[in-house]
Design brief:
two-stranded parallel ribbon, binds magnesium ion, mainly alpha, 7% strand, three-stranded parallel β-sheet, 55% helix
Length: 330
């Protein structure tokens, strides 16, 4: 039996991007081999931003299919949809009551997101990190893989756990961050000083994992590069550096080798080769995905199975907390 438990969720705001894949999803496969893992589509998190119901349903099914295409349900692991496990929202309520307004106010992602969604600064957006804490502790997770953007949220989760354990004894497990081998931060193709995001309003800024090869090539060709025309890894060479990171992640080549390969060549050749490497890297995943997304009955069967497994694990923790807090148990 695997000794440690890990959890990771991805928000179904859109099909994951190449950034999500190289920075997170690809590493999850490694994590899935060594740990008992729960992977999920966090649709509850998605509605902190206004969603069209049809889009949310479709995105949830698509992300779920991506997780299956990555074969993250293999090896005794679980893939599920967050809203199919009601304990997430239930435990989040209890954790809300153990979170200080002041500490939640310090979350920089809340400040950023409220700036970019000024017309809808809802309470859910504010307490999103508390729901994230509930997601983690429900499964007694030892590890959570996190990018830079989630560090502060994990710290908050640990503080909430410490507070609850301080009052009631050891009720919840304190989660640790899990760092993958590579985990590069991939930047937007159009604004390479900004990270690539699946919720970017302009699809040319990102490569979607399910983009057709000709679309990948086209987007790469229109990626912003630099004025100097050389392929080299320089501090201010943001666009080229980003493409080199992508190329290096897909081929395993070091920056030196890449610089040599493209010495005396233009950006046109370079971009075509990067596109080709990305297409090859994503091909097996896309083939499995294309098959799965058209098998609705099978997808739903997998969702039910995942929900059953996740609920069974989550219910134990939820009961434990409710009992300690003093809720009348029947
Ligand atoms: P959104 O715009 O909806 O927030 P996102 O692209 O930022 O989408 P998330 O669902 O927030 O994706 O994050 C999923 C995982 O992907 C997280 O582990 C996050 O750290 C990682 N990640 C997100 N963007 C990148 C990126 N550009 N490069 C590397 N990793 C990334
Ligand atoms: Mg994000």
């Amino acid at each position: 039996m695997k000794e440690k438990t890990a959890l990771s969720l991805i928000t179904p705001s859109n099909i994951p991007t190449l950034g999500n894949y190289l920075g997170a999803l690809r590493n999850w496969k490694q994590m899935a081999e060594d740990n008992r893992c729960f992977f999920g589509a966090s649709d509850l998190h998605a509605i902190t931003v206004r969603q069209d119901p049809k889009d949310l349903r479709r995105n949830t099914a698509e992300i779920f299919a991506v997780l299956l295409a990555l074969e993250l349900d293999k090896g005794g692991n679980t893939v599920f949809v967050q809203s199919h496990v009601p304990q997430h929202a239930q435990l989040a309520w209890a954790l809300n009551c153990f979170t200080q307004f002041g500490e939640a106010s310090r979350m920089t992602q809340f400040k950023d997101k409220s700036a970019s969604h000024a017309d809808n600064i809802n309470v859910g957006l504010f307490s999103y990190p508390v729901l994230m804490a509930a997601d983690i502790v429900l499964y007694d997770a030892d590890y959570v893989p996190i990018g830079e953007d989630q560090k502060q949220h994990l710290e908050l989760a640990r503080n909430i756990v410490d507070r609850i354990n301080g009052i009631y004894g050891d009720v919840l497990k304190v989660p640790e961050p899990w760092f993958g081998k590579t985990g590069k931060r991939i930047m937007s193709l159009l604004e390479p000083t900004k990270k690539m995001s699946k919720s970017d309003p302009n699809p040319k800024a990102y490569i979607s994992l399910m983009d057709e090869p000709n679309v990948i090539l086209k987007k790469m060709k229109s990626a912003v590069t630099d004025m100097n025309g050389r392929v080299f890894y320089g501090e201010d060479n943001h666009g080229v550096k980003n493409l080199m990171d992508i190329y290096s992640c897909c081929t395993g080549l070091a920056y030196d080798d890449i610089e040599k390969e493209f010495e005396g060549k233009g950006y046109g050749d370079f971009k075509a080769k990067v596109a080709e490497a990305v297409i090859e890297e994503l091909r097996p995943l896309k083939e499995r995905y294309d098959k799965l997304i058209n098998e609705k009955a099978y997808l739903e069967e997998c969702m039910k199975k995942g929900a059953g497994e996740a609920s069974a694990a989550a219910e134990k923790t939820y009961r434990r907390v409710m009992e300690k807090v003093g809720f009348y148990q029947l």
